[in-house]
Amino acid sequence: MSNLPNCPKCNSQYTYEDGNLLVCPECAYEWNPNEEEKEEEKKVVKDSNGNVLSDGDTVIVIKDLKVKGATSNLKKGTKVKNIRLVDDVQGGHDIDCKIDGFGGMLLKSEYVKKA
C-alpha cells in the first residue's frame, strides 16, 4: 500500500501521484504536497475582533499599554500604520511596527483592531 495523504478537499483515501502533483479521483482536486505543507506553516494573525491581519494594514490600539523603558503609556486609540506580521518573537508578540513618539516595537494582535 502507498502512504499518500488523503485528499484535503473530500478526504478520499484513493489519491494517486501524477508527476509532481497528487490527484483525487473522486473530486478531481489536484495539489502539490510540498506547497500544501508550506501553506499549513503560515500562521493566520487575527485582531481582537477576529479580522485577519496582513502586512501593511493599519490598526488601532484598543487599551492603554505599558511600554518598557518609556516614560508614558501607549494610549488607547493610537493609530499604527503599515504593520509587519512576524512569527511569535517574544511571548505572543506578532506585530512589528513603528509608532510616532515611541519608535519601533512589537505588539500583540489581541490588543489591536483593524482600522
Automatic annotation (TrEMBL):
SUPFAM superfamilies to which the protein is assigned, alphabetical: Prokaryotic SH3-related domain, Zinc beta-ribbon
Residues of the Protein YjdM N-terminal domain: 4-32
Classification via Pfam families: YjdM, Zn_Ribbon_YjdM
Gene3D superfamilies, alphabetized: 2.20.25.10, SH3 Domains (2.30.30.40)
Residues in Protein YjdM C-terminal domain copies: 45-115
InterPro entries per record: YjdM, YjdM_C, YjdM_N
Family: Belongs to the YjdM family.
Family matches, as NCBIfam families: phnA
Protein's name according to its UniProt entry: Zinc ribbon domain-containing protein YjdM
Organism: Helicovermis profundi
